[in-house]
Structures are given as structure tokens and as C-alpha cells.
Design goal:
By secondary structure, the protein is mainly β. It has a single domain (23-130), classed as Sandwich (Immunoglobulin-like), CATH 2.60.40. The chain has two helices and ten strands.
Length: 132
Amino acid sequence: MLLAALLTACTGKSADSTPLVVATPTIAFVSPHDGDTVGIGDLPLSIVVNDFLLSDPAKHNDGEPAGYMQIDWTDGTTPQSMQTGSTTPTISLPTAGSWTITADLYFTDGDGMSESFTDFVPATITVNAQPG
């Protein structure tokens, strides 16, 4: 519902009759890079988000184009996840192996970004964890 109101408001026309365009949010990993070798344990992430305001997932910001990021990571057998309003979260890789890390955006009400923007793509990388 939040997005419907936002899109309705943002797809109208500006004061000079120019159609307004709603940009599709983007998300990408700054670090680590896809294919990097990292140590087992805490792994700080750096993620860039454009055209979307991140907020605390515990807050309810109805009526605002805001939400949270969900980070999922798995080695194929051990799935883990967290919700955050930070672009610099730290996750923990408990074992050695190949880990896939995905960052996705959600509106505060829990609606997924891809439900509203069909060309939105979550960010995904794979890292290799080894004992330090």
C-alpha cells in the first residue's frame, strides 16, 4: 500500500507538466568483492544503496519511501539472515567454505522491492572463508 501511494504521487506531473519518474533503487556490495577469500568469523560488509532510505527495521515509517535491508548468507547447508538499517553490517561466517551473501531491500511494511520494481535486482556475492 505504501508503494502504491508513493508511485501514484510520484508518477504524476511536476509543476511544469513534466512527467515525474520514480528511480528504481539499486544495491551493491563495495566490500568484500565477489570471489574474495576471507577469514572465518566476523566479516564486515560495506554496501551502497541508491534511491532508497534505510531505516531501523524495528521502526514503522508508514508513508515514507523507506525500509530496511535483509542480508542472507549460506554455505548451502547453514542459512543465516539479519535485518538492518545500516550499510556497514557485520555478519559471522562460522565455517570454512564457499558462502553466498545476498543483500535485498524491503519497504518498512515488509513488501519486497522486487514486488514494486520489476527491474530491481538484489546484490549477491560469493566469498571463500578460510581459517585465519
